């Protein structure tokens, strides 16, 4: 029964752990006795739940000189100041370690399990509690006064185990995505420079390519439809509007979803009408994101987007523009001190390798198969994250109770 749960303040069930000052002259040491964590270490993929790898370490001598505190295994840590605070990252120390004074730590008392504390802290959005001022921050008082519903230890253990199983699935999926990305990147480099089955190559202004390939400027093999400049009036419904914000690394995102009025379409889309399969290019903020138009119904374009209609295979064109060689080229040609961008007139002059049409199609098909695998795994990852959020909402509040057998309850 939920009546078994205890309503209390977080400060009643945890001990506060202070970070330590970490001057530059003490940083950079490897293979020391203790890991000394900074907020940036939380971005390491290996530290997604437990902190297991640090950029900096210290020995007992440095700990004594710094008058620093060594915190025990299972301390829950998170950023307490600056923009990092708003990312709501939570981590657990995997061994006795230190952390700097941009981090806050919580040590679980006997009535709460460290892993349960970790998941509870993930439900807290510190953006709602930050102290006013130029730099967002939180303090001990804010954390101490957070309300928490605390089930018996045996139920905490079961809840933590359920959420941990989802975390493990998330980590495995992230590893698969990372590995597939690496294979795809290597395959793109190989196929877009060496092709399929070639043994003879030639030197060109864009590097070495197969003898049968040609080098052509984009303007000679494409029509450009430029929808940069002003933004149309947006409406709550109507015809879908695609801007640079929707064009991600290889695909069109559903976020944000924006529209223009149907009666405005003809007067707005005067520069040219996009066709299914056209290649989309963002000219700035971000520069060089590429996607292929996979929407068959009418869509409108605006804001930093160029539509490329190639006479070569559209799928091959997409991957050439996503390739390392092309991306490096447009980066070198970009201008702007704050936001990097490229002019349409400059982009048109960029040269790319052009294989025979049949080879274009084969290369596109191979790379698309890898992209399909990536998309499947990325969709799986999003579902798992959604499931985790839903489970935390119901399990950590007692809205849904876990089944705990008698053997577990007696432990």
From TrEMBL:
<dbReference type="InterPro" id="IPR000055">
    <property type="entry name" value="Restrct_endonuc_typeI_TRD"/>
</dbReference>
<keyword id="KW-0680">Restriction system</keyword>
<dbReference type="InterPro" id="IPR052021">
    <property type="entry name" value="Type-I_RS_S_subunit"/>
</dbReference>
<feature type="domain" description="Type I restriction modification DNA specificity">
    <location>
        <begin position="210"/>
        <end position="385"/>
    </location>
</feature>
<dbReference type="Pfam" id="PF01420">
    <property type="entry name" value="Methylase_S"/>
</dbReference>
<feature type="domain" description="Type I restriction modification DNA specificity">
    <location>
        <begin position="3"/>
        <end position="174"/>
    </location>
</feature>
<keyword id="KW-0378">Hydrolase</keyword>
<keyword id="KW-0238">DNA-binding</keyword>
<dbReference type="GO" id="GO:0009307">
    <property type="term" value="P:DNA restriction-modification system"/>
</dbReference>
<dbReference type="GO" id="GO:0003677">
    <property type="term" value="F:DNA binding"/>
</dbReference>
<comment type="similarity">
    <text>Belongs to the type-I restriction system S methylase family.</text>
</comment>
<dbReference type="InterPro" id="IPR044946">
    <property type="entry name" value="Restrct_endonuc_typeI_TRD_sf"/>
</dbReference>
<dbReference type="GO" id="GO:0009035">
    <property type="term" value="F:type I site-specific deoxyribonuclease activity"/>
</dbReference>
<protein>
    <submittedName>
        <fullName>Type I restriction enzyme S subunit</fullName>
        <ecNumber>3.1.21.3</ecNumber>
    </submittedName>
</protein>
